[in-house]
Amino acid sequence: MSTQETRETRQAGDLTIAVRKDIRVPMRDGVELAIDAYHGVEDKPRPALIAMSAYGKELQALALTMPPQRRPSPMWDGCIEAGDIARVVKEDYVHVIGDMRGTGDSGGVMIGNYNFGGVSQGQDLYDLVEWVAAQPWCDGNVGMIGISYFGSMQVLAAAERPPHLKAIFVSGGHFDFYETTYHGGIMWFMPRAAREGRGGDSGIAHTNVKSRMQEVYSPEELKKLVDARLRDPDVAAWPNLLHVLKYPKNREFWFDIVMNQFDGPWYEERNPVTLARNIDIPVYLQINQGRGWTVDGHIELFEVLKGPKKLDIGPYPPMQSRPWIEEHDKMFRWYDYWLKGKDNGIMDEPDVSVYVEGSRQVIGAQQWPPKEVDYQPLYLRTRRKLAPEPELMGPEHATPDGFHQAPLTVTDKVEILSWSTEPFTEAVEMIGTGAAHLFVAIDQDDTNLIMRVWDEVPGGKRQLLTTGFLKASHRELDPRTTEGNPYHPHTRAVPVTPGKIEEYVLRLYPFAATLLPGHRLVVELMNDEPLIDDHNALLPPDAYHLPVGRPVTHQVYRDALHPSRLVLPFTKR
């Protein structure tokens, strides 16, 4: 036992938990990470589940005292993600919760997001896994636990292939790191909450962190880059971003994200989807619908994994409780099989499980999508209709739909265009990604295009099915694009010629839903998003996107020469 380690017990109902506090774990470069270990009072070796992030191990201990909170509870804190400590101990595992380097009680320096630019976090996690496996309280079988940031860390650890990491169970991780921070090229504010601790999240437990941009560039070079970034009127109009760029100290990670608006080496070298090609241990991926970019990332990761794998797409709503307690039944079945050797039949079940909203059916298959898909169009028509048949009138008769959005500095109103189908006469099932082809002219050189697709029941109540985002200057398509499945490289900005009609193809994130008889499909288009609505109330308070900082007039053409349409994944009967 190290000199820092202390022993105590905690009580959770009638369960007594032995706690090893502030254990110091040496990394290969001499830095020590701080961990706590929770297990049963009987002195015996057990399988261990490791939870590591930069959010602070002390915060995770609230799982023993705070009842789980669901959004929109003001007590919901998105950073309490390491799992249900009492449940882990009750299932006879050791729950190891620790601080990454440069945070909490750990030593060292964290440079840039996930320490890319410093010591690889995967390297630290390798060392930690092997150290835990060698302890007398561990039987040598190690898995990992935790959602979101903790989930991403699992993938980074597994990609390093530590010999004693036998399996992982990832729920709600973030994988394509560019897509985590820029949706369709539009900056998402949620990473600000995770880094800075805004909007109901405690944020990273900073102790010694540095901006990678400030490590790489001289002050003179960096000033030129900052000045260039501030020439984006959307960035310059947003007070927090102006402040971050002018005074980056203590906002190092958010500064780095704001300064890197394009995809490329900065994000690719830390992309778990790329690293996952090296993973051959069993991986269970679980994600709920409603946050499409994370669903997309889980599917993309699933498709590149080489070993035994499962993909479980669950129901709406998108955000689990905090402290996180959901999915533990599935997780322990997974770990009982791979870490304890219990033949519980989990590997006899389909590799892919998808909950279908509307019908409330769970579909099992060996691949995504779980059913054969027939991509079919629904066209934007006059009188705000959405229909299977294209518009026959030319632009001289089918005049465009339009909206003018003033910047949110001078208005509270977000203008929204909408189109809807007639009520369906029979159930219609859709599972997969989609696309929105929009012919739009704007009077500026850039804008945001934000689409939401809803299932509206008779009486007006509705549920979000999927979303799409595209910054107009990021409209270039990637060669991977196929019908109903568009991609964008996001490697540069191509300004729009004001007044020119351009075709924009938005990626509609994966979803699974059955629209029942009497329901309508409603599609909304805007260039900013309402800060409060039925869907956003389920998300953390900062989960919105950078608004457009200048007035923009949009003309949406949907005529015989400009067939604006949705291309949706209707399943074959």
**Rg computed from alpha carbons, rounded to a whole number of angstroms:** 24 Å
Oligomerization status of the protein chains? single chain
Beta percentage is: 25-35%
CATH architecture of the largest domain: 3-Layer(aba) Sandwich
Outline the low-pLDDT stretches. none
Looking at CATH, which topology of the largest domain would you report?
Answer: Rossmann fold
Please give the domain count: 2
The 3D shape can be described as: globular
Quickly describe the structure.
This is Cocaine esterase. Pfam families: Peptidase_S15, PepX_C. By secondary structure, the protein is α+β, with helices and mostly antiparallel strands.
Account of the 3D structure:
The protein is an alpha+beta fold and 573 residues long. The protein is built from 15 helices and 26 strands. The chain is globular, with a radius of gyration of 24 Å. The protein starts with 5 loop residues before the first strand and ends with a strand. The mean pLDDT is 94.
